[in-house]
Amino acid sequence: MPKNKNKEIILTPTELIENKIFLIRGKKVMLDKDLAILYGVETRDLNKAVRRNIDRFPEDFMFQLNKTV
After folding, report:
1. Is 46 within 8 Å of 54 (Cβ atoms)?
2. Rounded Cα–Cα distance for residues 59 and 56 (Å)
3. Of residues 8, 9, 11, 30, the one with CA closest to residue 19
4. Model confidence pLDDT, tens digit, residues 8-19
């Protein structure tokens, strides 16, 4: 696939990313909706891509919260 030489590169300020990182139980966490915005995709598409390629990510890369206490 040929590269588009006219494609504009948009950089995201570090501050915007840092404000989306939360510290929960000693772990740095980003919500899928915030990651999707950074990558310019829908949240469901980001989650599908991760599930399709789960072997490319560390075991603790992703977790899902539920209502179980």
Report:
1. no
2. 9
3. 30
4. 777 778 888 999
